[in-house]
Amino acid sequence: MADEADEGIENALSLVVLTTERSGNMKKDSRQTIFETVITLRNLFIKLKNNCDEKSSKTSEVEAEVTKVKTELQRLTSRL
Predict the structure, then answer these.
(1) 35 neighbors 17 (Cβ within 8 angstroms)
(2) Confidence grade of residue 80 (pLDDT, cut at 50, 70, 90)
(3) Phi and psi at residue 69, to the nearest 5°
(4) In degrees, to the nearest 5, what angle opens at C-alpha 63 toward C-alphas 58 and 66?
(5) Is the pLDDT confidence value at 1 over 70?
(6) CA pair distance 60, 18, nearest whole angstrom
(7) Using an 8 Å Cβ cutoff, are 37 and 13 in contact?
(8) 59 DSSP 8-state letter
(9) Distance CA 12, CA 5 (A)
(10) Per-residue pLDDT at 79
(11) d(CA 57, CA 66)
(12) Which pLDDT tens digit goes with each residue over 18-76?
């Protein structure tokens, strides 16, 4: 699902760039602003994806630790 979102975002940004390149009546400053904004958006989306991946990894680590602690707790309580 994340790959579909990544692809959708990239396609939308590419369409903005393509439309800007094809627009003959747009001022140079406006074009430059659009190109810079697309670059900024791409970089921000990359940061968001990396942040999400990092949090997912941390969540998996914590879940594994919780499972380990639960197992140890069950082992200890079964002795009582």
Answers:
(1) yes
(2) confident
(3) -65, -40
(4) 125
(5) no
(6) 40
(7) no
(8) H
(9) 10
(10) 84
(11) 14
(12) 999 999 889 999 999 999 999 999 999 999 999 999 999 999 999 999 999 999 999 99
What would the two tokens of residue 9 be?
A: 């975002």
- Block residue for tokens 């579909």: 4
Query: Sign (positive/negative) of CA torsion 54, 60, 64, 66?
Result: positive
3-state SS assignment for residue 79: coil
Q: Which residues of 62-78 are buried (b: 16+ CB within 10 A; e: fewer)?
A: eeeeeeeeeeeeeeeee
In three-state form (DSSP H/G/I as H, E/B as E, the rest C), the secondary structure along 3-30 is: HHHHHHHHHHHHHHHHHHHHCCCCCHHH
Domains of the chain by residue range: 2-78
Token pair in block for residue 37 = 């904004």
